[in-house]
Write a structure and sequence with these properties.
It is a single chain. Helix 3 packs across helix 4, helix 4 runs antiparallel to helix 5 and helix 5 packs antiparallel against helix 6. The longest helix has 33 residues. The chain is mainly alpha-helical. The structure holds protoporphyrin IX containing FE.
């Protein structure tokens, strides 16, 4: 009886969750119409987010293989690219992605700048965005220090610090700033229909 009762409650909860999730997805994704005249420039904020998420997921994969010390770093990169299935692809994506992401973030910023969207009431959107640009450049720089060409130039403890900042410090702060950035955009709404 108890089990049956518990089962019923679970089913009810499951249905509630399903409809909440379905509504959330429908309202924000599947039932959203793409506006006419949508330009590539107008998409750069959203595409910067997609690029960031690709970096995080390929980066998590690389973390399982990278050895952040003087002796192991170079060998571990060679191991990922030559011995791990699809390792070469994910390593390449993680290495090329930042160049594209930096381009996207700068295009997003230039659109905001030239259209004057940084003005009241969006000053803080701009400030949080500027912090995101600095963080994007910092994560790019620390990542390039860990690349095949540069990793040998750093001594053990230095390399470990750079690695910790690159994989944990900066991404966490970026997540926080992105949360604030999106919350602000959600609060004011976007300036013009994309
Ligand atoms: C990792 C970096 C960034 C991400 C992922 C990001 C993402 C987004 C997204 C998704 C939007 C809403 C859609 C849009 O208007 O494009 C947005 C809006 C905005 N962003 Fe960014 N952004 C980033 C960096 C920046 C930078 C560098 C600036 C300027 C310094 C900036 C300033 C703004 C402003 C002012 C808005 C409001 C636009 C409006 O109301 O129409 N963002 N951002």
């Amino acid at each position: 009886m108890n089990n049956k009762h518990t089962g019923l409650i679970n089913n009810e909860n499951e249905n509630e969750n399903k409809s909440f999730l379905r509504t959330l997805i429908e309202n924000n994704v599947t039932r959203r119409l793409i506006p006419k005249g949508l330009s590539w420039f107008g998409c750069m904020g959203g595409l910067s987010l997609v690029a960031f998420l690709i970096q995080v997921s390929t980066g998590i994969f690389l973390m399982f293989h990278f050895v952040p010390n003087e002796r192991g770093a170079l060998d571990s990169i060679h191991n990922v690219t030559h011995n791990v299935p699809y390792g070469w692809l994910l390593q390449r994506l993680h290495a090329i992605g930042p160049n594209i992401m930096v381009g996207m973030v700068i295009s997003h910023m230039l659109r905001i700048l030239f259209k004057g969207i940084y003005k009241h009431p969006r000053e803080l959107h701009w400030v949080s965005g500027a912090c995101l640009l600095i963080l994007t450049l910092l994560i790019y720089y620390t990542g390039s220090m860990l690349s095949v060409g540069n990793v040998k130039a750093h001594s053990g403890i230095h390399l470990t610090y750079i690695y910790a900042i690159h994989v944990a410090g900066i991404p966490l702060i970026m997540g926080l700033f992105m949360g604030m950035h999106f919350f602000m955009v959600r609060t004011t709404g976007i300036c013009e229909q994309l």
